[in-house]
Design brief:
Distance between the termini: 26 Å
Radius of gyration: 14 Å
CATH architecture: 3-Layer(aba) Sandwich
Strand content: 15-25%
CATH class: Alpha Beta
Number of helices: 4
CATH superfamily: Response regulator
CATH topology: Rossmann fold
Largest sheet: 5 strands, parallel
Helix content: 25-40%
């Protein structure tokens, strides 16, 4: 995991992988992350593309949509776990039973969510809290 030159508690210059198959939501996520100073990697809509980005980019944390069309992001989650990169699952489904037991510890951010929720979730990846208005 890289630190990207950011001081503790700072999301600026953090490299965030976005894996989301809904183009509108992916663009919105990337725009919001850019507004708070993050560098977005992606977005990727499918596992092979996301895994290629993981292997070729310095990633500090990731936002993974659980369901990517007919596939899931669990293979990406396994790669990130193996490499010690924190990530968050995003899902519009309340079906937390679809998360494999090996990934049950991963934070799940239910869709829809607000910008403050997204910023707080990214901050939590680095072990710090965000308070106040975004």
């Amino acid at each position: 995991m890289t630190q990207s030159g950011s001081p503790p508690g700072d999301l600026r210059r953090r490299k965030v992988l976005v894996v989301e198959d809904n183009p509108f939501l992916a663009d919105s996520l990337c725009d919001l992350l850019a507004e708070i100073g993050c560098e977005t990697i992606g977005p990727a809509a499918r596992s092979p593309e996301a895994l290629r980005l993981c292997a070729t980019s310095a990633v500090d944390c990731a936002l993974l949509d659980v369901h990517l069309g007919r596939e899931t992001s669990f293979e990406i989650a396994d790669w990130l776990t193996l490499h010690g990169i924190p990530f968050i699952f995003m899902t519009g489904s309340s079906d937390s039973q679809s998360i494999p037991a090996r990934l049950a510890h991963v934070r799940i951010m239910p869709k829809p969510f607000g910008s403050h929720d997204l910023v707080a979730a990214c901050a939590a990846c680095f072990g710090f809290l965000v308070s106040g208005n975004i």
